[in-house]
Design brief:
The protein is an alpha/beta fold. Helix content is 30%, strand content 23%. It is built from nine helices and 14 strands. The strands form three sheets. It has a six-stranded mixed sheet. A six-stranded mixed sheet has the order 7-8-9-10-13-14. Strand 2 and strand 3 form a beta hairpin. The structure holds ligand L3IBWBLD and fe (ii) ion. Ligand L3IBWBLD binds next to loops. The site of the ligand N[C@@H](CCC(=O)N[C@@H](CSS)C(=O)NCC(=O)O)C(=O)O has 14 residues, from loops. It is found in: Mitochondrion.
């Protein structure tokens, strides 16, 4: 029986490369059993490592993401796009779960809310603020395309996705089998679910955003989960394949996309004049540790 399986075993290691003939071969009941065993093993080895929470700040409709490697003795954790107003909620959760916050990261210099990274640094000694070098913002760590940010055995890879702002990046979980599967892409405001970030300030460019999304995000496996920085429509998560098929802006050709983006006629974010200068110094970057705020 083992010999019988061995003809197909390589298919189980490369599930995204299947032809229709190979897919049919995997429908054999014995093969299906093996597939299930592999996926159970795969999910227990990868997802049991990762603790993941999606958190929401309702005034700015911002998502904050908490990721931790709970298989590591320290349970190291990071936050993506924390908001100043919800820092205490986030820290309560981190403490309740016994995690050690290591990184407070941003996908870009936000225009609609003040980042929580500065406050987090004052409340949790040792936390490092992280942003792209291209953002021009102040922080403890500056990222460039291809860099990796690790917590325990889990890592995020940095992809440059400018266009909404000049320094926007997308953080993507690793592709190896020991990393969480399916992959997860934290797209900031580059891709929103069924939408995308505006391109009319902070060095925005619709031409550049289109190129960024098509070269850096839509080239990821179709089952990659999309977790954006905002949602205004009641969505929580999408996939690369779903957005490639149904995104009303990004499915168009580039010229149509540019025309859509130059006719959005959106009001400027209410907090832009406060948020951008504050976020250029990572919120409250220079406050001393554990200041009484
Ligand atoms: N009404 C909000 C701001 C809404 C807004 O402009 N959102 C940005 C992302 S935050 S920089 C955006 O890119 N929106 C795209 C869209 O299609 O809505 C406020 O006043 O704060
Ligand atoms: Fe933004």
């Amino acid at each position: 029986m083992v010999t019988h399986f061995s003809r197909f075993q390589h298919l189980l290691l490369q599930p995204r490369l299947l032809s229709s003939h190979q897919s049919r071969a995997l429908q054999h009941p014995l093969i299906r059993t093996l597939t299930v065993i592999r996926s159970v093993m795969g999910s227990s080895s990868s997802s049991s490592k990762l603790l993941f929470r999606q958190l929401f700040e309702k005034e700015s409709s911002t998502f904050t993401y908490l990721l931790a490697d709970v298989s590591h003795p320290d349970k190291p954790a990071l936050l993506i796009d924390p908001v100043d107003k919800t820092v205490d909620r986030d820290l309560k959760l981190i403490n309740e779960l016994g995690l050690k916050l290591v990184y407070a990261m941003n996908t870009h210099v936000h225009a609609d809310h003040v980042t929580g990274t500065g406050l987090l640094k004052t409340k949790v000694p040792g936390v490092k603020s992280v942003i792209s070098k291209a953002s021009g913002s102040k922080a403890d760590m500056f990222l460039e395309p291809g860099d990796r940010v690790s917590i325990g055995d889990i890592y995020l890879e940095v992809r440059a996705t400018p266009g909404h702002t000049a320094g926007c990046v997308t953080y993507v979980t690793g592709e190896e089998a020991d990393q969480p599967q399916p992959r997860m892409a934290f797209t900031g405001d580059a891709v929103l679910i069924r939408g995308c970030g505006r391109t009319d300030f902070q060095g925005g460019s619709s031409d550049q955003l289109y190129e960024s999304v098509h070269s850096q995000i839509f080239t990821l496996p179709k089952d990659t989960l999309i977790y954006p920085a905002h949602d205004y429509k009641g969505y929580e998560v999408s996939t690369v394949g779903e957005e490639m098929q149904h995104n009303p802006r990004l499915t168009k050709d580039k010229e149509t996309f540019k025309s859509i983006m130059s006719n959005l006629n959106l009001a400027y974010p209410k907090m832009i004049d406060v948020a951008v200068p504050a976020n250029m110094v990572c919120g409250l970057q220079d406050l001393p540790p554990q200041a009484n705020l």
